Amino acid sequence: MSLDVPPEVMEKAERGQVDLPDFVACIRESLPYAYETVSRVAGNLKDGVPSSNGSTQFADNTTEPPDEATRGQLLRALASDSIKGALEQHFQVKLVFQNCHRVAAFPLSEVGSDTYTTFISPRAQLLNQSPELRSC
To answer: Which top-rank group of organisms is this from (predicted)?
Structure first.
């Protein structure tokens, strides 16, 4: 799944002048489901909306994408270091990804905390699996 890059942004990239707002705009336009999901999770974090386990130390998405195309957008966004990094910088959060749809946003100050370390642990990864998610 490629990004749709406007010609003027491509010209800037060819000259070596890529700025965050242009890149984030490409992400938002090309991967709208992924962008909206990350935006919502980051917004929930900033607004203090409790996560799926009731914690306000992070916010997460536990709703599966409606179809394979949207699932692909989320996978594309979070599997790309540059896209994930741009979204983290744009929203000022640390994004973590546990399966085909469980995206969490942590405040940068929580990276390394017990809650963060537990969330990204192999144990948490294993406990977050289910037969329904084997194909995601």
So the answer is: Bacteria
Residue type, 26: C
Strands 59-61 and 103-107: antiparallel
Alpha helix positions (H), 5-79: 7-14, 20-30, 32-47, 68-79
Task: State if pTM tops 0.70.
Answer: yes
pLDDT score, position 79: 92
Distances (CA, A) of 37 to 55, 75, 81: 19, 12, 17
Q: What is the pLDDT of residues 53-112, one digit of tens each?
A: 899 999 999 888 999 999 999 999 999 999 999 999 999 999 998 877 789 999 999 999
1: tokens are: 């799944």
